[in-house]
């Protein structure tokens, strides 16, 4: 299926700011579409799209009123994510879903075309910079989670200056040492 498309979706998301549900849905759409199509198409059900963004829904007509409200909320979240993907240019709607027919989307993943959309202009805070370069710089407050001197304890309460251990032994607060171990003496019983 869409292994190549999933890789392209991840690369696309590096350059284009996608919301979390949009990214999840785009990954799902890319995974289920065929790589070999000239224009990869997605046409899975709304229930599958809801599952892609982390919403498990009951079948229509089953469950209580709360289940039906959750179903409606899940489909609304899918609608919002799809509208965002269409607006940013990641996918194009080929056909609308109707009774008994699923919506169909063409997966584009053209970062250059997406950068020229008005939605990209809204999401990219500083023109001329990519969206991930606008992260907030760390403040002037120094780190307080590290011990100020070598004799103090770490945040977990473990003394910082541990005694040296013999290779292959463990301590109460560490895993096996990284020293070489001779595995030739191990017997396998079968």
Automatic annotation (TrEMBL):
UniProt region (Disordered), positions on chain: 118-190
UniProt name for this protein: Uncharacterized protein
Organism name: Microbacterium rhizomatis
């Amino acid at each position: 299926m869409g292994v190549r498309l999933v890789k392209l979706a991840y690369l696309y998301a590096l350059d284009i700011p996608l919301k979390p549900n949009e990214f999840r849905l785009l990954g799902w759409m890319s995974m289920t579409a065929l790589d070999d199509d000239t224009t990869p198409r997605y046409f899975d059900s709304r229930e599958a799209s809801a599952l892609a963004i982390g919403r498990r829904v009951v079948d229509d007509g089953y469950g209580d009123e709360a289940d039906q409200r959750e179903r409606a909320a899940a489909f609304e979240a899918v609608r919002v994510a799809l509208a965002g993907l269409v607006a940013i240019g990641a996918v194009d709607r080929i056909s609308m879903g109707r009774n008994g027919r699923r919506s169909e989307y063409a997966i584009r993943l053209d970062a250059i075309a997406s950068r020229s959309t008005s939605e990209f202009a809204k999401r990219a805070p500083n023109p001329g910079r990519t969206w991930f370069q606008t992260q907030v710089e760390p403040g002037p407050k120094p780190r307080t989670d590290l011990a100020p001197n070598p004799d103090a304890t770490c945040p977990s309460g473990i003394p910082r200056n541990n005694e040296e251990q013999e290779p292959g032994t463990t301590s109460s607060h560490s895993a096996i040492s990284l020293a070489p171990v001779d595995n030739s003496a191990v017997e396998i019983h079968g």
